[in-house]
Write a structure and sequence with these properties.
The chain is an alpha+beta fold. It has 5 domains: 8-99, Beta-Lactamase (2-Layer Sandwich), CATH 3.30.450; 109-225, 2-Layer Sandwich (Beta-Lactamase); 231-420, GAF domain (Beta-Lactamase); 431-654, Phosphatase 2c, domain 1 (4-Layer Sandwich), CATH 3.60.40; 660-781, Heat Shock Protein 90, CATH 3.30.565.10. The protein has 21 helices and 34 strands. It has a 6-stranded antiparallel beta sheet.
């Protein structure tokens, strides 16, 4: 074998023999000798390989020669064979194995590098240390719309002057040059020169390049076109975001504004929404196509181009054959990718055409707002010079989905508006529009309906100059709540006029609530009235007494002239329809000038909120305030966010009936006292300066009532005259038997007294006293002159 100290050149040594790790084979191809170089290169010791066939060590794969390393992997190389004859005359082979591992790796790297430039779909740019483009591959030229001759030596901002992301990319690459930290997932948006109307999106990565000595050479930029995937992702995200940002309320105007504000600039450069006028009022819209007399109202705009057409609040008629309005008759989405001057869309409407041309609009979409088969209006989207790309079919699909969602929100708002307005009209119609002036109280009141619950209040004049005050709330909603309020208020009025005591009145009202709930079908939709609340009180200005009962409702807040507050002395019973318990009645002596405040608590308020509201009212009200000032202070406490929260507030300031306006006489049970009673009444009316016509009627009433008391009732008999807004004549006796009208026959000598009284007075009735007995009363209306 050749000497191990020889130094080969290229593939041959100086002595002309091949270079490499030598070993020897016999004529049968078995290893005969194994050198130290071969052991160092392949890891096999001589004793492990000598005698083995060379085919166990050599592998021919992929057109190359490889030898097996002791560790199991293959070592690429080149074999050189030199025949040699031994002294015995046999033929042997001197084999020289040259390791080509390094050369193979370099070849692979060169091949991979060339493949990146010629075959890879990834865009590859080589940037110098000054961030100028040095080289780019074929893929970069293809999908970024540039050429090497117009790109090499230029900065990115020069190649894509309209790409706002280029400046940010250069700043990021400067950071890569300085720190060596790779840049990944950077998004670059630009308009390729070969397709300047469509924006492309690239995912960019950047890596610093250095030579063998560590000097910075520049940056390798790798770009991947992600336009299609990102566009789909953005459209999907747009629809997801619209579900939380559009249609957040049941307000039609707010929903319209949310739509255009959301669409600009995410969908378009400008947007406008026009609704059929009936949508705003909640009215029914005719089914099928809409005619030329349809009134459209501009609800909201965003951007500048739509605003030039018509400002929000503008009302116009759908005049054919304007293409936009033609959609009212044939509702279908329309996409105009490239708007031209001779396009039928603007040419049929010169005013619209002028506004679109001035704004530079080059593409538009118009979509009908259809919900449940009803056309509610139109929504228009515009693009102009600021965004060169036109609308595409994918944009129309997204816009149509957005329009369908908004149309459903608008239709829900329209239906809600209709029901809310109907409920409010019904509620307002079932409440007192004006309250009759009362001598016993000075009244201030207010009512703010809400969709959560229905509130109500009332002031009911009673006999004897007394006044009933009541307030309540119903847990039902909408029209059902309004109907419930009407039934409860009517029942309270009837029972009040019958002089039903407060505790008994609430008991009858409780029975009514239970009966109403039982009448409802078990399988039908309805909201129970159980849980409704009511407070009812009667104020007597002569006795200065307030009688109150409450069914789950906050009791009246009383603020006396000396600032004392009476809350704990008024007991509260359960809400209506929840139990069979009784409702306690409370008697309070109320000094003149006391503020009585009845209010409804916030919706779904608990005991703590109700107590806090009462305490806040106590802090806000002052004895020195008149009823109107007190009402304004109460409204600020109970309606901090305005009338939308809903409340009923009733403020009353008490007054005492002057003694000079009340005259009372106790009459002994003697029929002769009837004439005396007439004389006393006549003298009192003369002292009050009431005319003879009033005196005549009063004497007749006194005569009949006193006569009946002496004839049918028990002592004591008391005659009382009260001069207030009306003139009241009362006769009290010790009997609990109530009189009733009789229709006497023509042959009867009596039985016409009460019928005669009823024909001369405005109203009459009977009330039972708390301590027993009854009072028959009759009222005469007095003109202002009297």
């Amino acid at each position: 074998m050749p000497s191990e100290n020889s130094r080969p050149t290229d593939h041959h040594r100086d002595d002309g023999l091949p270079r490499g790790a030598p070993f020897q084979l016999d004529s049968q191809g078995r290893v005969r000798g194994w050198s130290a170089e071969a052991e160092a290169l392949l890891g096999h010791p001589p004793q492990a390989v000598e005698g083995k066939l060379v085919t166990e060590l050599v592998s021919l794969a992929n057109g190359g020669t490889m030898m097996r390393h002791r560790a199991g992997h293959l070592v690429p190389g080149r074999l050189g064979l030199v025949p040699e004859t031994t002294d015995e005359g046999s033929l042997t082979w001197n084999v020289y194995f040259t390791d080509l591992t390094g050369e193979t790796q370099s070849e692979r790297e060169r091949a991979a590098f060339e493949a990146l430039y010629t075959e890879s779909p990834l865009g590859l740019f080589i940037l110098g240390s000054d961030l100028r483009i040095v080289r780019l591959n074929e893929a970069a030229e293809g999908f970024q719309g540039i050429s090497a001759e117009n790109t090499v030596g230029r900065l990115m901002r020069d190649v894509w002057p309209d790409a706002a992301s280029c400046d940010a990319a250069e700043e990021a690459f400067q950071e890569v040059l300085r720190t060596g930290k790779p840049l990944t997932n950077f998004e670059k948006r630009c308009y390729p020169t070969e397709d300047a109307l469509h924006e492309s999106i690239f995912d960019v990565s950047g890596y610093r390049l250095r030579d063998s000595e560590g000097n910075v050479l520049g940056i390798a930029e790798v770009s991947v076109d992600i336009t299609t995937g990102r566009r789909a992702q953005e459209r999907l995200q747009l629809l997801v975001d619209s579900s939380t940002r559009v249609g957040t309320t049941l307000d039609i105007l707010q929903t319209s504004r949310e739509l255009v504000d959301f669409a600009v600039p995410r969908v378009a450069d400008g947007a406008a929404i026009d609704l059929v006028a009936e949508v705003l009022t909640g009215s029914d819209i005719p089914e099928g196509p809409l005619g030329s007399e349809t009134t459209l109202r501009r609800m909201a705009t965003a951007g500048t181009a739509p605003a030039k057409e018509a400002s929000p609040g503008h009302t116009g008629h759908a005049t054919f054959p304007i293409p936009t309005c033609r959609l009212l008759g044939e509702p279908h989405p329309v996409l105009v990718s490239q708007l031209k001057p001779d396009d039928p869309w603007p040419s049929d409407d010169p005013a619209r055409n002028q506004s679109l041309v001035e704004a530079g609009v080059h593409s538009l979409m118009v979509l009908p707002l259809l919900a449940r088969g009803t056309l509610l209006g139109l929504v228009s989207f515009y693009r102009w010079a600021r965004r060169p790309g036109p609308f595409e079919q994918e944009d129309l699909v997204v816009a149509e989905e957005l329009a369908n969602r908004v149309a459903l929100c608008l239709d829900n708002a329209r239906r809600y508006t209709r029901e809310r307005d109907a409920a409010r009209v019904l509620q307002q119609g079932m409440l007192p529009r004006t309250l009759q002036a009362q001598g016993a109280l000075h009244i201030a009141h207010g009512y703010a309906p809400t969709g959560d619950t229905a509130r109500w209040f009332d002031v009911i004049p009673l006999s004897g100059a007394r006044v009933a005050l009541t307030a309540g709330a119903v847990p039902a909603r909408g029209l059902g709540a309004a109907a419930a309020v009407g039934r409860l208020r009517s029942t309270v009025r009837v029972l009040a006029v019958l002089d039903t005591p407060p505790d008994e009145l609430l008991a009858r009202l409780d029975e009514l609530v239970v009966a109403i709930d039982e009448e409802q079908p078990a399988d039908g939709p309805h909201e129970p009235l159980a849980g409704a609340t009511c407070v009812y009180g009667v104020y007597d200005p002569i006795e200065r007494e307030l009688t109150v009962a409450s069914a789950g409702h906050p009791p009246p807040l009383l603020i006396a002239p000396d600032s004392t507050v009476n809350l704990s002395d008024i007991a509260t019973g359960p809400a209506l329809g929840l139990s069979q318990e009784t409702f306690p009645r409370t008697f309070l002596t109320v000094p003149p000038g006391t503020l009585i405040t009845l209010h409804t608590p916030p919706p779904d308020a608990g005991e703590d909120e109700t107590r806090e509201a009462a305490e806040a009212l106590h802090q806000a009200l002052r004895p020195s305030q008149d009823e109107h000032e007190a009402f304004r202070a109460a409204a600020e406490v109970l309606l901090p966010e305005g009338p939308a929260e809903g409340a009923a507030i009733l403020i009353a300031r008490t007054r005492q009936m002057p003694e000079a306006q009340v005259a009372s006489w106790e009459l002994p049970a003697d029929p002769a006292m009837v004439a005396t009673a007439r004389t006393l009444a006549k003298q009192q009316l003369s002292a009050w300066n009431l005319g003879p016509d009033v005196s005549f009627t009063t004497e007749l009433v006194v005569s009949e009532l006193v006569t009946n008391a002496f004839r049918y009732a028990a002592e004591p008999v008391t005659l009382r005259l009260i001069l207030d807004q009306d003139l009241t004549c009362e006769v009290a006796d010790g009997s609990n038997a109530a009189p009733h009208l009789r229709h006497a026959r023509t042959t009867d000598e009596g039985g016409r007294g009460l019928l005669l009284v009823a024909s001369f007075v405005s109203r009459w009735g009977t009330r039972l006293a708390n301590q027993g007995g009854k009072t028959i009363w009759a009222e005469q209306q007095l003109t202002p002159e009297r």
